[in-house]
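Final paragraph of the annual report: two paired records, presented back to back.
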Amino acid sequence: MARAPLLQLSGISLTFGGNPMFDGLSLSVQPGDRVALVGRNGSGKSTLMKVMAGLVEPDRGEVVASAGTSVGYMEQDPDLSGFATLGEFAAAGLDVGEEYRVAMAAEGLKFDPERPVATASGGERRRAALARLLAEAPELMLLDEPTNHLDIQAIGWLEEQLSDTRAAFVLISHDRAFLRRLTRATLWIDRGEVRRQDRGFDAFEEWRETVWAAEDEARHKLDRKIKAEARWAVEGISARRKRNMGRVRALQAMREERAAQIRRQGTAAMALDAGPQTGKRVIEARGISKSFGERVILRPFDLRVLRGDRVAFVGPNGAGKTTLIKMLTGEIAPDTGSVTHGTNLEIAVFDQARAAIDETVTLWDALAGDPDMRVSGRADQVMVRGQPKHVVGYLKDFLFDEAQARAPVGSLSGGEKARLLLARIMAKPSNLLVLDEPTNDLDIETLDLLQDILGDYDGTVLLVSHDRDFIDRVATTTVAMEGDGRAVIYAGGWSDYRAQRGEDAPVVTVAAVVAPAPAPARPATAAARPPGLSFTEKHRLEALPAIMERLEAEIAKLSEFLSQPDLFQTAPAKFAKASEGLAERQAALAAAEEEWLELAGRDEG
C-alpha cells in the first residue's frame, strides 16, 4: 500500500515585489526522499524551502504535512535571541535526558555548546542550528546550505549522519561532492518553474543541458515559423482581397508566445588579467613557523611556489590555513625562517570575511569609490583592466541590475557579495590571486565559470576551500594542515591527497587538465606478501576502481587537450605541462592496474 507523502504543496503561487516567483506550483516529498533543491542564486530556493517549512505564507495554494509528521528546518541566519549559550539554543525542545544528542552533534560539527550567543560568530550560530535540527531528528529535514562554514572534516561527519538517517530530507547546497554523495532526486528551480527528476544530483548537469537544448530547438522552430507566417502575411496581401484572419490571429498568438518566453539568466562576464609576468619563482618559504602564545600554528615549513601553480590549503577550521597564506604573501611575519617573493608581484585577495567591502556604502560607491578603480574626473566610470567602463554596465556584467546600483552592500545576499568582491578583484591586473573560501554562497554555474577562468589564468593561485570538488578541479598542489602545526605537501587536488594518504576518496569530477597526478606506490611482489588481505588492503582494493576510472577520464581529457593542432606554437608552457601530466597519469594508471590485479588475486586466493 502506497504511503501518504510527508509534505504536499498544491497550487502554490507567490509574488515578491510585483514579480511572480512561483505560479501554480505543486510538488510532494515522500517518505525516504533525499532531494537536492538546486537553481541559480535568486531563483527562490530558500523561499521555497521556507514555504515548505511554513515560515512563508503563499498568496494562493496550500501546504499540507501528513498527520503526525514532524518537519525541521535549518535556515541560513538562525535567530538565537532569548538563549544564553549555543548549547541552550540547540537543546531547546528536547526532552529531559536527550541533551547528549546536542553534545554528539557539537563534537562532530566542532562548536562549543558553552559559547555565549553574544560572542558567537555567524558560523558557530549556523552550526548550533544544524545541531538542533539533528538532535530533534524530525521525519523531514529541510536544510539550507548546511555545509557553509564547515570544514572538510565536519562536512564528512555530516555526510555520514545524513547518509545513515532514515528521515527524508530536502537539501540546498553548492557543494557538488556533498550533493552527489547524498541525493537520490533533484528539484530544479528555473525561471519560476520547478521540475523534478528522480535521480540524484550526479545526473543534474546532463538533465539541465538536455532541457535547455530542447528549449533552444523549440524556440528556433517557433522563430522560423513566425518568420514564415509574417512573410505570408506581408507578401500575400496584394494577391488576395480578403486575408485569412485565422492565420493572422495565429501569427499574433505565436508572437505573444515568443515574447512571453523567459530567457535563461546568463552567467557573469568574469575575466582575469594576469598583469605583468612574474619571475619563474613566485614565493620561496624556508623554515617558516608561527605560534600564538603556547599554541603552535605552524612548525618549520618549506614551500616553493612557481609561476602558474595552483596551491590549495586544506585542513580543519582553526588549523592555520589563512595564517599560513598571510605569511606567504607578507601580510604577517613568521616567527622563524624567511619568505622571498619573486619579481613584479601584484597580489589580489578574495578574503573569507569579505572585509574588503564596506557594507554601509552602495554598490556604485564600492566600485567607483575605490581609488584603484576610479577614473579621474568621471564619477560614473571605473577602470576595468585598463579600460574605462560605466559603473552600471560593469555591475550588469556580474548579474546586478540597474536598481541595485544605489542599494547598500549590506542588502546583498552572500552570493551577491561574493560576486561584487570578484568584480573588484577582476577589474585590476594581478599575477598572484589569493582566494580564501571563494566558493561559499556562489551558485554552481558561477563556480563552473570561476573554475574555467582560473584554468586560463596565466598567474598563480593560492586557494583555501572546503569544497572538495572545486579543489579537485583547480589545484595542482595541496598543502594539508594536519594538526599540531604540521603542514604536508601533496601533488594534485583533494582526491589525489586522499589517495596518497591511503584514504577512500569521495566521488569527484575530472581535475584541471594541467594538474599533476602522482603514480600510486607500487605494491610489493606477491611472494613477499602474506596470503589474504589486511583491512587496509581490502579498503584499498575497493577504492582502486574509482581511482582508475578517474585516471582514465583525466587521460582522455588531456589527450583531447593536446590534440589541438596549434597548441605547441600558441601555448608551449601549457603544452609542456599537459604532456607531463599525461605521462604521469599514464604511469599512475599502469601502477594502479598492477596493484589492483595483485590485490584482487590475493583476495581470491
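The closing record of the year follows.
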Amino acid sequence: MHARTLSIRELFSTAAGPLRVPIYQRNYSWTPTEVHQLLVDVVDGMEREPSAQGSYFLGNLVVTRRDGDWELVDGQQRVTTLFLLLAVLGRRHETVPVLRGRLRYDARPRAERTLGRLVGGPPNPLDADEHDPAMLDAVQAIEVELSTWDPIDITRFTERLLDRVHVVRAELPDVDLNRYFEVMNTRSVQLEPSDIVKARLMSRLGGDPVALHAFHRIWMACADMDGYVQQTLTREDPTLRSEIFGEAWDWLELDDFAGLSERLTGSARVVDDPAPGAASMCLDDAILSATRTGADTPAADRSDRFRSIIDFPSFLLHALATFTTDGSVEEPRLLEAVLDDNRLIELFEGTATLGSRTQVEQFAVHLLRLRLLFDAYVVKRHASSAHVDDDDWSLQRVVKRERGRGRRTEYFMDYVGTFGTEDRGVLLLESMFRITYTSPRTMRWLTEVLAYLLHPGPGGIREHGLEGVLRQAARRAVRDAIPDWEDPPSGFAIPRIVFTYLDLLVLDHRRPRDRDFSFMFRTSIEHFSPRHPRAEQGIDQVSEENRESLGNLALVSVGTNSAFGNLSPRAKADTYQDTIVQQSPKLQVMAGIVRSAGTATAVWGDDAIVAHHREMMDLLRQDVDPTAGYLARG
C-alpha cells in the first residue's frame, strides 16, 4: 500500500484530487451523537498538543485510484463529516478551501444535491424532501455545537483543524475491492471503552459463573438505551418480568444481586459448565465472556418507538456519579462529576467504590435501578422524529396490559404519560434542558435529576418535586449566565440557557400553558431589528447597543434565521406568524408588539427594544432572584 500523510487542508485541496464514495458503500449514516464525538475528539486532541507544532492524527483513509478520483474504500463517514464541518466553517472564514466538487457520492442524487448546495447555495438550503436527511442532521448538530463557542475560539479551531489535524491516505494495490470491503466491515468487532469497563468489573466477580452471567444480562439490557429495561432484560424469558419488576412491572421486586442472579441464571448449564479458568479470570477471559452473547437479541422483539437523549457510555458516567455504597450522594459531588466519556475507563478505574466483588454487585443493581428511573422520568424522543430539530418529545412509563380471557389471557407492555396529567411542566423543562445543553458532557442537570429520583423511588416521586429540582438547576444556570444584572451579556455572548428558560417563563404566564409549543433544537440568534436592514421605508433606526441587547434577540433555528434574513420586524411579524409561534414564545411577544401597532410603520425602535428588554430581564430576575426587586421600577 502507498501511504501519504495529509493535513485536512491538503486532503480537500484541488491538488490532492477529488474524493468519491462508490456505490457499494452505504449512505452517510452518522448520527448527531457521532458527529459531536468527532468534534470533541478533535478539540481534545488539540488541547493535548497545544504547541504550534503539535498535530492530531485522525486515522487512516483507505482509497483506490479510479478515473482520476480517489475512491473511498474505508473512512467515508469521517470524510463526509469533515466535509460538512468545513462547509459550515466556510460560511464564517475565508481560509477554508474551496470545497465544490471535492467530494462526490456515486448515483445518490440527494447526497450530491446536499453537498452541492452546502458549498455553493444559500446559507440554509436544506429541505428534507430534496436532500439527504442524515447530512441535514449532521449540519444542524455542528451548528448547535459551534453556537456555544466564542467567535475567537471558532477562528482558532478552524486554523488548527485545517493545518494541524492529519490523516493517512493509504492507496490499495490492485485487489478485489468488494472482497476487501466485506472483510473490513463484517469480519472484525471493535471493542468499545464500555466493553473494557464491563470486562474489568466482571473480573472482580471471582470467576463465579452465576454472577458473571447475571452481571452480563443486566449490563446488556441497560446498554440498549432505546428500549425500556423491563423489556430488554426479560426479552429472552418474559415470564421473569413479574418476578423481577413486580406484578405491575414498574419497579424492582428483587433489589439485591443474589436474588437477581438466581432468577437470571436459572440454567443448569451456566452453573455446571463454567468457563475454563473462571476461578482466576483475567481481563482477556472477562472480555470474551462479556461479549460472547452480545448479539442474541431477536430483532422482532425490539422496542423502536423511542430514542434516548444520551448514549450508554454517558449513562454509565451518570451512574458512576450517583453511586455510593451507602446510597447517599452529596450535592458538591454531583456538581463536580466528570461526564467526559473519553475518560470512561480512567474514571471507572479511579473510583474507590468499585474495588471489591460486593461493590461491583451493588453497582449492577444500582445500574438497573437507575435505568428504570431514567426510562420513566427522563424525556425521550419518538423514533418517528426524522431530524435533529423535530420536537416530538415523550415522557412515558411502562404499564402492564392484558388481552384475551381465561386460559387465553396474555399480558403485554404499554406506555402511558408518566404523571398522567395535562400539566406539561416536567416534559417542557427536560426538553428545554436537552436542547440547551447538547453535549453529553454538559448534562449535569441530568445527574441531579437521577440523584433526586433515586432516594424516594417511584412510589415517592411527585411531579411538583421533580419540577422543583429542574427549576432550581435552571435558575442556578441563569444566575451563572448573568453574574451582573445591571450589566448583562449581549449579542452572541448571551448563553443559550437565558433564551430557553426565558421562553419557558413566558409560557408559564399563559394559562394553561400553550400546548402548541414544544422545544426544538434552535442554534441561531435572531436580531428582530436586523443588523444589516434592507433599504426599505418605515424601518426604525436602532442603536448598536440596543440591537445587540436581549430586548432585540431571540433564539431560532438555522432555517428560520435564514428565512427572516434582513427583513424588517414588521415584515417578519406579518409574513411568518406560524413560524414565530413554533420557534419562540419570546419572539411571539416581540411580534405581538409590532402587530398591535396597527398600520404604524415605525414601531420597533430604541424605545420599544429598551422596554421589552426591561420586561424580559424583570421576568428572569423575579424568578431567579426574587428578592432583588424589579429593574423597571428602579
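Residues 32 and 141 are 5 Å apart (CA to CA). This concludes the annual technical report; the extension proposal builds directly on these records.
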